[in-house]
Amino acid sequence: MQFQKKMIVLGAAMAFASVASAQEVVKIGHVGPISGGIAHLGKDNENGARMAIDELNAKGVTIGGKKVKFELLAEDDAADPKQGTAAAQKLVDAKVNGVVGHINSGTTIPASKIYHDAGIPQISPSATNPKYTQQGFNTTFRVVANDIQLGGALGRYAAEQLKAKKVAVIDDRTAYGQGLAQEFIKNVKARGVEIVTQQYTSDKATDFNAILTAVKAKKPDTIFFGGTDPVAGPMLRQMKALGINVRFIGGDGICSEQLAKLAGDALADGQVVCAEAGGVEEAQKKGMEEFRAAFKKKFDTEVKLYSPYTYDAVMVLVEAMKKAGSAEPAKYLPELAKTKYKGVIGDIAFDARGDLKNGTLTLYTFKGGKRDQIAVVR
Fold this sequence. Notes:
This protein is α/β, with parallel strands linked by helices. It has 2 domains: 2-144 and 284-358, Rossmann fold (3-Layer(aba) Sandwich), CATH 3.40.50.2300; 148-276, Response regulator (Rossmann fold), CATH 3.40.50. 45% of the residues lie in helices and 21% in strands. It has 12 helices and 15 strands. It has helices at 2-22, 39-59, 81-93, 105-118, 147-161, 175-189, 209-217, 229-241, 257-263, 285-299, 307-324, 329-337, and strands at 24-32, 62-63, 66-76, 98-100, 122-124, 140-142, 166-171, 194-200, 222-226, 247-250, 272-276, 341-343, 346-348, 361-367, 370-377. α3 packs parallel to α4 (105-118), α5 (147-161) crosses α6 (175-189) and α11 crosses α12. Residues 5-10 and 12-21 have low confidence and may be disordered. This is Branched chain amino acid ABC transporter substrate-binding protein. It comes from Noviherbaspirillum denitrificans. Keywords: Amino-acid transport, Signal, Transport.
């Protein structure tokens, strides 16, 4: 009898273990700069991914008939390419089922080869350099417009709406900043705008007096900056100190309310025009407002920039897994390529390279230290 009791207990324990093991763990990696100058953007993106993971677990998702639990493996790349590739390899070694990230093009591009070689799908929520999806990798996707679209929109706006005639261009020599500047130059030149000077800085610079003095001598009516807000804010302060009171144009890297904090009283109303590689048209506004409210309630902070895109990127990965009936990368990758998903940011579908089809862009200026939307364009 004692033996039989032990067998019954052992059998019950094994049955319980079998039920527990039936709940498959699906690992989603996220990489972004959680330290360094753009840590506020990195944390924003990570929070977007975490929000998606928590919602999926609360719903109790099944894939291929099995209930799954999602885990977020978050890594910090400090916006540094070497740290980015190290973080990518760490996620590969952890056998993640998919990756959302990285944030900036300079880390996303080198990391993408590591994911591709391991056969792991990667969706970037914010890397805009065209090279990312031009490498021939079937594992690379993005849910934002690229620099060709972004630079084109900014170039058209500068020439046609702002009537710019003489433009000075400054970039921070990163893959993002340089790529965006090149696309902007191409577009304004095609519209008869003169580039009076090109100057270069770095994404860690704090003193811009030498290049701004050179810019001032050329008497531009507009300055274009390819870079991010930690550099743009101090640059605007030094422009004011040097008496350079001209329009300042940039991409999504400067298009956050952090810019207003960093620039302070040097930021004049309407002086800055920036474009965010994405945007919500009228039909999606309600959904975005609901997302922002839920995000604020969960994290006690406002959406900074791309957290809705990170959120949607996680959801797109999981939707492909559900359709394939498997979280194995090789099995759900074909479904990912065929994605047709209605997200917070709008309709998401990819072209043959993994670029977002018909991506929107939002043009902003700043008034009273707050972003003020100009228009959503394609």
